[in-house]
Amino acid sequence: MNVLFLCTGNSARSVLAEAFLNSVGRGRFRAFSAGSHPTGKVNPFALELLERNGISTAGLRSKSWEEFARPDAPRMDFVFTVCDSAAAEACPAWPGHPATAHWGVADPAAVAGTDEEKRKAFREAFDVLSSRIARFIESHAAAPAMSFFERWLTLWVFLCIVAGIALGQLVPAPFEALGRLEIARVNVPVGLLIWVMIIPMLMKIDFRALHEVRRHWRGMAVTVAVNWAVKPFSMALLAWLFIRHLFAPWLPAAQLDSYVAGLILLAAAPCTAMVFVWSQLTRGDAYFTLSQVALNDTIMIFAFAPIVGLLLGLSAIAVPWDTLLTSVVLYIVVPVVAAQAARALALRGGEARLQNVLRRLQPYSILALLATIVLLFAFQGRQILTQPLIIALIAIPILIQVYFNSALAYWLNRRLRVAHEVAGPSALIGASNFFELAVATAITLFGFDSGAALATVVGVLVEVPVMLSVVSIVNATQDWYARA
């Protein structure tokens, strides 16, 4: 795809955008820049900043936008103006009728003062542009950004279940020793694994995206309502119906309350990481997805414990409030603070460095999840071997709540005439679960060998295939959705 960045002088902002997109576009994007009144020279502070970030400056020059209005010019797919004056001018008629948008960015070249003050202005402009370009790439990627680990997550989880059960039966002593490593009822090995699992995911969240909430307020309202006012309560109802009544004869009576608690924990927090993959698979609006996740994570800090406590209480399950609040601090507050600190540190090297750090950390996050599953099933093995239907029975209410909540969010967005690129991610965010947090909290509250821990891991097992089926439904019904 060809992308043209425009500003008046074509010496700073548009040049920074051109160079950065060519650097991170991975062959999918070819960037150009031009100006309505080019200065004829690229600003030296722009060149210095690019070189410091390891971005090539070869071939960069200040040029007129008339070069790209000629019949023999490359046909553009997108044209972005990055300064207000260029946006207000009458642009040439671009061959191919590209999509256009305005990204207003303060002009760093207009800043007076010392060289260090000017460098700071250029860094700030570059940060804004690189962040927007990263989101633009995410929303227009040719292929889904599912890694090898993510694509086959269900298989890895199944293999870890088998390995955990086998190891727990063959060599139980090491697992029993790990289970005893606790501080204030928090298992230390699991706590460390959960941090390795969650922190890289939370590093993807840019809380500055919260300002986008107003732009997509209808889609945001639907998703927040489904996530926090419908999903946890519908799961509690389904758990009561299936676990306590319909399936009770086939489940161990001593664990019924624990299974209900695990299902409530699973539904009490919306997905944070995989939702970016689901959004991309539906060609969702990247700005909406990022701002919705940032909003949900903000709400989660304050709402997770009260909702879990309320639903456990309504289900006649004793609520260990001190342990629940400890879980919120350990598995929400601390990871969010640590992740944002790590994100800020990585961004000192620019957006490209942050993306590189995230790619390197991603496999460790998945491996930590799989290691936790091995530990869980080493403790659960004997119970599962005696009653192998447990996993299938627990999966049924999880499947129902995913399809119900995704359908509800999708239908509400259609009724409110929300664009499909917002409705798709809204339906997927509304249905998916932050299973990493659920697993960690279940272990802390009820222990390794609890039914609650098992129930949350069943959520991990079904997450990828069921969410991929929802993606397929959203994509297949796009024409029906548009008819509204």
Q: Strands, helices and their partners?
A:
Layout: E1 2-7, H1 13-24, E2 30-35, H2 44-52, E3 78-81, H3 84-88, E4 99-102, H4 115-139, H5 148-151, H6 153-170, H7 172-179, E5 182-183, E6 186-187, H8 188-202, H9 217-246, H10 256-267, H11 275-281, H12 286-314, H13 321-347, H14 351-386, H15 390-415, H16 420-431, H17 435-446, H18 451-476, H19 478-482
Parallel strand pairs: 1-2, 1-3, 3-4
Antiparallel strand pairs: 5-6
Helix pairs in contact: 1-4, 6-14, 6-18, 8-13, 8-14, 8-17, 9-10, 9-12, 9-15, 9-16, 10-17, 10-18, 11-12, 11-16, 12-13, 12-16, 13-17, 15-16, 15-18, 16-18, 17-18
Features:
four-stranded parallel β-sheet; two-stranded antiparallel sheet; about 475 residues; mainly alpha
